[in-house]
Design goal:
heterotetramer; B: alpha+beta; D-Maltodextrin-Binding Protein, domain 2; Dipeptide-binding Protein, domain 3; 2 domains; 6-stranded mixed beta sheet; 4-stranded mixed beta sheet; 23 strands; 29% helix; C: mainly alpha
Chain lengths: 329, 596, 317, 295
């Protein structure tokens, strides 16, 4: 087994709010293999974005801080890395795409400035070289007549275009890992598809690993090889895409899947949803975090947190998991 | 960064703009830095109503007469006039000769920029100006109704080409004034800044701005003038008249210690540059004075008196540490402060209802009993003011040192009793409006006053401070007789009690100088009678009778003449004075060593 | 060129403002302002003289006529002569405005620069003790009355009881050295007072900018803190900052620092204005108010133009 | 496309702003202390108002610039008035000024701001904006002075002047907020069911701007008492009675002669109150600011 590009181990992150200490991430562990695309799935507030920010060392502190655990990039520990060292990783080895293409780019600088700055900083290019490289990248992400548009300001572009610029920028220093935080949520459906496609394509070409953070299983299905389902700061289920979609083992994953509309089905009764709401991280239920919303919950579930258990590369944290795909029960 | 750049640029440009204005090349010059506790607004002689204005005006312009530098009580002497006037038997016709060859300073106002000779016609013109509405004269009341034919001349539209019978230039150097009725104080008025002589060229050339662009024939000429200071420089063309100290009233005993003898035989002006700084805040002024050379003359702020003086009575003495740094003179002002009741107000003054009028009289006298002169003197006048009964202040010859003092008595009990007898009760008592400009000391004087009145059982809420944000508005209220009680000060224009007695002369009622609107037939008669008399025991008798009438009718609570303590630096040769006219001594001031 | 046209258009739209300001203030001063007449009459005036003066002051003309006159004066920038001294209003302004500027500018500039500097520090160390210290300090600064500061500083630095290093009052400036001596205390006082407000304001602005997504993006691409702060954040924060500075300029220029000038006896436009207020010297007031209004409109325009320079999204249409 | 997101984010919003604010505020120590101080001052003011203390402020019994003594705790001023009771009495004056100005200018600003915000780019908006522009362009002291003259003698001229100038800031803020609010569903809804505009503005929109109004009010309060000091110094301030401003004005000369009691007393009272109010207002802002997560 090749050694993972990035491995997150027992990560614990807390935020101090006026109402008390909130444990946003509570012992999260996962690996990313070179070249693979990992989906990080969950409802908003489940900690998936926090995780990705943590990887880049961007947890706003105060109020947030990494309590324990480790994040290793090719075996190199990132937790506790000095700001200056981190700067050489950000955008060069790991780069990130954000949810809001409208606001994620600096409104008062041209695309050129913003892209060349990165290149000059990390690749030690001259402005001239950097500019050419930037134009290259823009072309690569499918921006028409890049040498013209590169001198435009963000507000002169459409959302889709901006997101492409972001992607181009993110990949311009061909990083080992790309963190995509809800990259398509803010876009309309058709653009979403295109942008996503674009991303996947590039990733194949450049062999970059991707962590795709999203609440949208559809997106995951389209582009990921593996997915980590998070719930209230913990991993509920981790598995390859196929089994996950065929037979989600965790009742929560199951719920999530059910809530995706399937056009194929003839009779379209209204979407089933998971009852109840995400628990307040300050007042978690005893035992399993999902217990209050779980149709399978019983006494045991109220006792204590179920551990994440592996069963032929599909992990689940539940006392009453659904049967794994293939196994007949 | 953009703003930083702009800012610095801006700043540096400013330093050139505002920072470095015209620097005085004072090196090797004799500079005297005088200071006053107020500032003039206009330097037009016709508007020189304040001593502040006079300080500048009499040093830039010439007056026919002036006061002797050192003689006290004040003695009048010829200045531009060649001699004292020839007065006809009936005291109606004055003939005055002026010095020849006196010239105005050079100024663009004159055809070729060269100042021409000053002639009798200029005086005639200067006095006529007062009766030309355009001049906005504040001093015309000195002469209005007194100079023959002047009223008609004004009626006819103030045409300077038309002659006035009572005011003529007989020839180039002779002036003749004819009066309607005798006016013994005329000569004094000709020593006032009001009567200073201006060239018509300048008046026409500068128009409205003449008030800040004075052109005269005095010892100095104006360099700069604004609300905080006036800078005057020696007038090179000023006539050379050696100082005769004996004539000026030099007295070794009094003036010796000031080194005045040094200036004997020298010709004024003695300094090259005369700065007059206008500083209202007495303590800022003091700090500025005690500290190096910022200013070289000041009074002592009341807050510091005990720190500076070793002794107040019988004669003022500085503490040694100050005595070795400064010279000092002290004396009482030629003026006094008094608090008038507005007799035009039926609630405390005259009233159709005779009964009520008597009650009001009682009320006024009761309030006078409540007035604690000693406290007032102690808190506001350094406990050094001279308190006297009535309206003839100690500085004038007609003052009666052993007149009845009962009007000064402080006795709340008597006040209370008086009120009760007159049938006053708390609810009947009228609301007293005490008018004043909204300034700290005015307010404090009022609060002290209110404190006393409560002691004769006057309800506190019935004594209100009617504050005005500007002197103009206060004066308006006074001139329109709107205020019941008016605290006022009067500075004498000339050392003759007539100048204060006119304050209660009926016809001078509001908007005139008679703020009390006192109108007593007997008093008026006596005033008219005395006004035309030369100084004499008879006149003094009349004066004192008038004074008694004022006291008996309780129209004013009066009075107090403030003690003036004047200090100046040891390197200044001077005998300062600020009482009569003001500033006429400045041309005799000298500086020991020239400024570095 | 487009800019010039814009400015012109904008100025025309600014005219209602000028009208409003002048009209309201003129109403106030004519109908409610102090009556100059009684400052000008002598100790022993007569009704006749009073009428004469009222007439010369134009008090007897109808309001509309006087207002139109005013507008004409404003248009021609000739405000006639002061009612108290008789000096030309323009020459008064020419004399006093530079003094006020020279007096106020250092404090104004320092106050803002220091404010921004401290704000940057505070914002950068947001939540740490340094931030808390600076913010605490600025609250204190905001809570002390300007008057108190002036008095205290004068005692401490100028008077003999204190250090006595600087002139107690006045303005005898003939050299740069004098200049420094005279402005130090007023400047210190001004800065002391302004600093609190500025720092708070600028910090708020900068903190808000720091929270923006694009800042996070820049971070995520490894932008070093210096560049982040001065390039990405400050340029965006420029707009509110400039606006604040711009809009305080007219008042600084014209009313100067009334308090400082009247307390330190400095013959600046602030003192002149205040004396004019209390004595009802209408020509001066008319000039001051009018010019302020015009300046405001100009600042409005400059401000918009500045937006354009800083923010590409703004267009001068 | 996915319903979970909204559904789960709903309940957080539904918590009441005020409940949360109070909850936050109670946990803010400085805020609570500040509030305490303010309330203490208010208590003093009420006492004066009720005549329990400070009534002797105008008696002139005492000596001239007497030092502290049993009967005059903080000494006396030039005419022998008790500085302590003057300072106490002034507390009432301060609150009078602060309260009147704060409340009235906030109401004025709230209403006008709401109107102009709701009727954006109508003549109403234009007019109000114009008025605000005008008032902001008149030099403050000139304006106050003018009003002070306008209502010479009236004890409230200063208050009115301040109100007339202070309301604009509030109005601008409210205007902005209302413009945001008026596109929210609940307003749309209100319009849809045909509520009269008056009702919409004042029943549905205004309440959502109260947090701004409250904070503004506190800021104006501070501004008012600080301006009072300067105006009184300039002779445009409090007409009758006594205030810290008058005391400081009185002291400006004394201090240079080393009589500090008047100055120190007045400025200490002033400083403490203003400081407390500022801190209180800050904490209030934090508490009411929905964006703020933590310190």
């Amino acid at each position: 087994m090749t050694q993972p590009l990035l491995s997150v181990k027992d990560l614990v992150i807390e935020f101090s709010t006026q109402r008390g200490i909130v444990r946003a991430i509570d012992g999260v562990t996962f690996d990313i293999m070179p070249g693979e695309t990992l989906g990080l799935v969950g409802e908003s507030g489940c900690g998936k974005s926090v995780t990705s920010l943590a990887i880049l060392g961007l947890i706003p502190s105060p109020p947030g801080r990494i309590v324990s655990g480790s994040i290793k990039l090719e075996g190199r520990e990132l937790v506790g890395l000095s700001e200056s060292d981190y700067r050489h990783i950000r955008g060069k080895e790991i780069s990130m795409i954000f949810q809001e293409p409208m606001t994620a780019l600096n409104p008062v600088f041209t695309i050129a400035t913003q892209m060349t700055d990165v290149l000059m900083r990390h690749q030690g290019m001259t402005r001239k070289q950097a500019r050419n490289r930037a134009i290259e990248m823009l072309a690569l992400v499918g921006i028409p007549s890049p040498q013209k548009r590169i001198d435009e300001y963000p507000h002169q572009m459409s959302g889709g275009m901006r997101q492409r610029v972001m992607i181009g920028m993110a990949l311009s220093c061909n990083p080992k890992l790309l963190l995509a935080d809800e990259p398509t949520t803010a876009l309309d459906v058709t653009t979403q598809a295109q942008v996503l496609e674009q991303m996947v394509k590039l990733q194949d070409e450049l062999g970059t690993s991707v962590v795709l953070v999203t609440h949208d299983l559809g997106v995951v299905a389209q582009s990921c090889s593996r997915a980590v389902v998070m719930y209230a700061g913990r991993i509920a289920e981790e598995s390859a895409i196929q089994p996950l979609f065929q037979a989600p083992r965790h009742p929560y994953s199951e719920g999530l899947l059910k809530s995706i509309p399937r056009i194929r089905e003839e009779k379209l009764d209204e979407l089933p949803t998971i009852p109840g709401t995400v628990p307040d991280l300050l007042h978690l239920p005893a035992g399993c975090r999902f217990v209050d919303r779980c149709y399978k919950a019983d006494a045991a579930c109220h006792q204590q947190e179920p551990p994440l258990e592996w069963q032929n590369n599909q992990a689940v944290a539940c006392y009453h998991p659904n049967p794994a795909a293939g196994s007949n029960a | 960064m953009i703003i930083r750049a702009c800012a610095l640029l801006f700043l540096s440009s400013l330093l050139l703009a505002g920072g470095c204005s015209d620097g005085p090349k004072t090196t090797g010059m004799k500079v005297y830095r005088h200071s006053l506790n107020g500032s003039p607004t206009s330097l037009d002689p016709a508007q020189s109503a304040t001593i502040y204005a006079n300080h500048v005006v009499v040093n830039i312009y010439d007056t026919l007469y002036s006061y002797k530098y050192l003689a006290r009580p004040y003695q009048i002497k010829p200045n531009l006039a060649a001699a004292m006037p020839d007065v006809s038997e009936d005291g109606l016709t004055y003939t005055i000769r002026i010095k020849k060859g006196v010239e105005f300073t050079d100024d663009p106002a004159f055809p070729d920029g060269k100042g021409r000779e000053l002639t009798a016609a200029d005086f005639v013109y200067s006095l006529k100006r007062h009766f030309d509405p355009k001049t906005r004269s504040q001093g015309s009341w000195f002469w209005s109704g007194r100079i023959k034919g002047m009223a008609d001349w004004k009626q006819a539209g103030s045409d300077y080409d038309k002659e006035v019978e009572g005011l003529k230039a007989l020839d180039r150097y002779t002036i003749r004034i004819i009066l309607n009725k005798p006016f013994p104080q005329l000569v004094h008025t000709l020593a006032q800044g009001y009567s200073a002589i201006v060239p018509h060229e300048a008046v026409n050339y500068y128009g409205r701005e003449f008030s800040v662009r004075p052109v005269g024939s005095g010892p100095f000429r104006l360099q700069t003038f604004d609300s905080v200071r006036a800078v005057l420089v020696r007038n090179p063309k000023y006539r050379k008249e050696p100082i005769d100290l004996a004539y000026e009233g030099y007295d070794e005993a009094i003036h010796g210690k000031f080194g005045i003898e040094k200036i004997e035989g020298r010709a004024p002006p003695l300094v090259d540059r005369l700065e007059i700084h206008f500083i209202q805040e007495s303590l800022s002024r003091w700090n500025s004075f005690t500290k190096g050379d910022e200013i070289q003359y000041a009074g002592i702020p009341k807050e510091l008196l005990d720190d500076v003086l070793a002794r107040k009575q019988p004669n003022v003495l500085l503490k040694p540490e100050y005595a070795q740094r400064f010279f000092m003179t002290s004396g009482i002002e030629t003026g006094f402060v008094h608090t008038d009741f507005n007799m035009a107000d039926p609630e405390i003054g005259y009233n159709k209802d005779k009964r009520r009028e008597e009650m009001n009289h009682a009320l006024r006298c009761a309030i006078r009993y409540a007035f604690n002169w000693h406290e007032r003197n102690k808190r506001f006048y350094n406990d050094m003011g001279v308190i006297f009964p009535g309206i003839i202040p100690p500085v004038v010859p007609e003052y009666d040192p052993d007149g009845p003092k009962d009007s000064l008595e402080y006795s709340p009990e008597k006040g209370k009793k008086l009120l009760e007898e007159a049938g006053w009760t708390a609810d009947k008592l009228p609301t007293l409006t005490y008018g004043g400009v909204a300034q700290v000391d005015t307010r404090q004087i009022f609060e002290q006053y209110r404190g006393w009145l409560t002691k004769i059982g006057y309800p506190k809420e019935k004594i209100v401070f009617d504050s005005y944000a500007s002197f103009g508005d206060f004066n308006k209220a006074v001139k329109q007789a709107k205020i019941k009680i008016v605290g006022m000060g009067w500075g004498l224009d000339y050392p003759d009690a007539e100048n204060t007695l006119q304050l209660f002369y009926g016809p001078n009622g509001s908007p005139g100088s008679n703020n009390a609107n006192f109108n007593d037939p007997e008093y008026n008669r006596l005033y008219e009678q005395s006004a035309v008399m030369q100084p004499s025991p008879e006149r003094t008798k009349l004066y004192r009778r008038m004074n008694q009438i004022v006291l008996d009718s309780c129209v004013t609570i009066s009075g107090l003449s403030r003690q003036e303590i004047l200090l100046w630096h040891k390197n200044v040769v001077s005998y300062p004075d600020r009482s009569i006219v003001g500033g006429f001594h400045l041309k005799y001031v000298d500086i020991e060593e020239a400024g570095k | 060129m487009e800019m010039l046209q814009y400015a012109l258009r904008k100025f025309i739209t600014g005219i209602p403002l000028i009208i409003g300001v002048t009209l309201i203030s003129f109403l106030l001063m004519v109908y409610f302002g102090p009556d100059k007449t009684y400052e000008l009459v002598g100790k022993n005036a007569t009704e006749e003289q009073i009428q004469e003066i009222r007439h010369q002051l134009g008090y007897d003309k109808p309001f509309v006529a006087r207002y139109l006159e005013y507008l004409k004066e404003l248009a021609t920038f000739d405000f006639g002569y002061s009612d108290s001294t008789g000096e030309r209003v323009n020459s008064i302004l020419k004399r006093t405005v530079p003094i006020s500027l020279a007096l106020i500018t250092p404090g104004f500039v320092l106050g803002n620069l220091l404010g921004i500097a401290l704000a940057l520090v505070a914002a950068y160390y947001r939540g740490h003790w340094l931030d808390k210290l600076i913010m605490g300090g600025s609250v204190v600064g905001m809570s002390v009355s300007f008057l108190i500061v002036i008095i205290a500083f004068q005692i401490l630095l100028s008077s003999n009881d204190g250090l006595g290093w600087f002139p107690v009052r006045g303005w005898n400036v003939y050299s740069f050295w004098d200049y420094l001596r005279y402005i130090t205390v007023p400047t210190l006082a001004t800065v002391f007072v302004a600093l609190g407000y500025n720092t708070r304001f600028y910090r708020a602005v900068i903190v808000e900018e720091m929270g923006r997504d694009h800042v996070r993006t820049a971070k995520a691409f490894g932008t070093p803190p210096g560049e982040l702060l001065f390039k990405h954040i400050l340029k965006n924060a420029m707009i509110p900052i400039i606006t604040r500075i711009m809009f305080s300029i007219p008042l600084v220029v014209i009313s100067g620092s009334l308090l400082v000038e009247s307390y330190f006896g400095i013959p600046g436009v602030g003192k002149v204005t205040f004396d004019a207020i209390t004595t009802g010297d209408q020509p001066i007031l008319k000039a001051v108010v009018g010019i302020t209004a015009v300046l405001f409109v100009i600042v409005l325009i400059l401000n918009d133009i500045f937006y354009k320079l800083v923010d590409p999204r703004v267009s001068l249409k | 496309m996915n319903t979970l997101a909204e559904e789960t984010s709903l309940p957080k919003e539904s918590e009441s702003l005020w409940g949360k604010a109070w909850y936050k505020f109670r946990r803010d120590r400085t805020g609570m202390i500040a509030l305490g101080v303010v309330i203490f001052f208010m208590f003093i003011a009420l006492g004066v108002w009720a005549g329990l203390w400070g009534s002797g402020w105008s008696n002139v019994g005492g000596d001239m610039w007497a030092g502290p003594s049993p009967e005059h705790w903080l000494g006396t001023n030039i005419i022998g008035q008790d500085i302590y009771s003057r300072a106490i009495y002034s507390t009432k004056t301060a609150f009078e000024v602060g309260m009147v100005v704060a409340i009235l200018s906030t109401i004025l600003g709230g209403i006008l701001g709401a109107l102009s915000g709701y009727f954006t780019n109508s003549w109403v908006d234009e007019l109000i904006l114009w008025l605000m522009g005008v008032l902001d362009s008149i030099p403050f002291y000139l304006f106050v002075a003018a009003i002070a003259y306008a209502l010479q003698g009236y004890p409230y001229s200063m208050h009115i002047a301040m109100i007339a100038t202070f309301w604009t800031t509030t109005a601008r803020l409210v205007r902005g907020e209302v413009i945001k609010l008026k596109n929210f569903e609940f307003v749309e809804a209100a319009r849809a069911i045909g509520l009269p505009q008056g009702k919409i503005i004042f029943r549905h929109i205004m309440p959502n701007t109260f947090h701004i109004l409250l904070v503004q009010a506190t800021i104006v309060f501070v501004g008012a008492i600080k301006s009072e000091v300067i105006l009184s110094f300039l002779g445009l301030g409090v007409v009758d009675g006594v205030s810290w401003g008058l005391m400081i004005a009185e002291s400006t000369q004394e201090v240079q002669a080393g009589h500090y009691s008047n100055f120190l007393t007045a400025s200490t009272f002033l400083f403490v109150l203003v400081m407390a109010f500022n801190m209180f207002s800050d904490s209030l802002q934090d508490a009411l600011d929905p964006k703020k997560v933590s310190a």
